[in-house]
Specification:
Layout lengths: L2 H14 L2 E2 H6 L4 H9 L3 E5 L2 E4 L8 H9 L4 E2 L1 H7 L10 E6 L12 E6 L2 H4 L2 E6 L2 E6 L1 H10 L1 H4 L1 H13 L5 H11 L2 H11 L1
Parallel strand pairs: 5-6
Antiparallel strand pairs: 1-3, 2-3, 4-5, 7-8
Helix pairs in contact: 5-7, 7-9, 7-10
């Protein structure tokens, strides 16, 4: 592989932040070139089919960008969304992603994913778009995340959901109207009501 071609590949990867092999292949870059760059220490294989420049400076949210590339239709949710919005002291070991009930998801060990299946408005409402290292990342907004935490309290713990609610109110991450809106979508209004009344 010529040096100029190597520089071109690295330039493309740096521009994208994190790139899928399929994206690079569509641009005429063979997978053998990617393998060679990984072996030379110029590219880092983040997970299956996902690459980043070896000299890139990852941010604290790099794994969210990696997960978004790995699960294109996914939305960062629950503990990972809480962490993104600074609404928890938890440090999740996995990236929590919401996908449609019928959607395919990758099964791998390089990138630890925790897949939760949503449907209807619970999947489609409350999505914010953020850019993480040049990668578009879909994350549920704070109010939707808090409502989801109450809905999935058996998975994450009621104490975590209550902490998130208090932090969201204290840090003014969302309004009471927004919380009620998403509580209705997630069908947790009766559960959420006493906690909301206690903090207002």
């Amino acid at each position: 592989m010529k040096t100029t071609a190597t520089e071109e590949v690295l330039k493309l990867v740096r521009k994208k932040g994190i790139a899928r092999a399929s994206e690079l292949t569509r641009l005429g870059i063979p997978r053998t070139c990617l393998t060679r760059l990984v072996n030379n220490g110029q590219l880092h294989r983040v997970s299956r089919g996902i690459y980043a420049a070896a000299d890139s400076n990852p941010t604290a949210n790099r794994t969210l960008a990696e997960a978004s590339k790995r699960v294109p239709g996914g939305v960062v949710c629950l503990l990972s969304a809480l962490r993104f919005h600074d609404l928890t002291t938890q440090l999740p070991a996995e990236i929590w992603m919401a996908i449609d009930r019928k959607a395919w998801h990758p099964k791998e060990h390089i990138l630890p994913l925790r897949i939760i299946r949503f449907s209807g408005q619970a999947l489609s409402e409350g999505i914010e778009m953020h850019s993480v290292e040049g990668v578009p990342v879909r994350v549920y907004c704070p109010a939707k995340t808090v409502a989801d935490c109450f809905k999935y309290r058996n998975k994450i713990g009621l104490d975590v959901a209550v902490e998130a609610l208090r932090d969201a109110h204290r840090k003014r991450k969302c309004t009471m109207d927004e919380l009620w809106h998403f509580a209705r979508i997630c069908r947790v209004t009766n559960l959420l009501r006493p906690y909301l009344e206690a903090i207002v």
